[in-house]
Design a protein that fits this description.
By secondary structure, this protein is mostly helical. The chain folds into two domains: 5-46; 54-129. It is 68% helix and 0% strand. The protein is elongated, with a radius of gyration of 20 Å. It starts with a helix and ends with a helix. The model has no long low-confidence stretch (mean pLDDT 79).
Length: 130
């Protein structure tokens, strides 16, 4: 299906705007109403690609590591950060974290939940700041 030149130019503008947001190419394609292959063509044509989010990813890795080492389980970390549990599991693997003894030593009952609650509060305040 052919689109008009105006529509094509509008799509290119939307693509350039969305690149700075950091969303995935799949999400971009849905918003613009094109395929990911078309986005690759836009990338070649404009020379613009998604923003570099290495700092954000590094921060996310640190949060996941901190929460995991504090004793939180993957589903809890997932719901806290709003990330799919499979992605958390993949990050955990990339960080070299194992399932053995991830709960802090000498932490029992209420202490354990205090640690988790403090981490959740810290995460909530970080999210509110953004």
């Amino acid at each position: 299906m052919m689109i008009s030149r105006k529509q094509h130019e509008d799509n290119l503008k939307k693509y350039v705007e969305l690149c700075s947001t950091g969303i995935t190419y799949v999400e971009m394609a849905k918003i613009i109403g094109v395929t990911t292959n078309t986005l690759r063509q836009y990338k070649k044509k404009t020379g613009v690609s998604k923003k570099d989010n290495t700092a954000e990813k590094e921060e996310m890795f640190n949060k996941i590591k901190e929460l995991y080492l504090s004793g939180m389980k993957l589903p809890d970390i997932s719901s806290c950060l709003g990330i799919n549990p499979r992605v958390i599991s993949s990050y955990k693997y990339q960080l070299g974290l194992t399932d053995k003894n991830h709960k802090p030593k000498n932490v029992k009952g209420k202490e354990y939940y205090k640690i988790i609650m403090n981490n959740l509060k810290a995460m909530a305040s970080d999210i509110e700041k953004q």
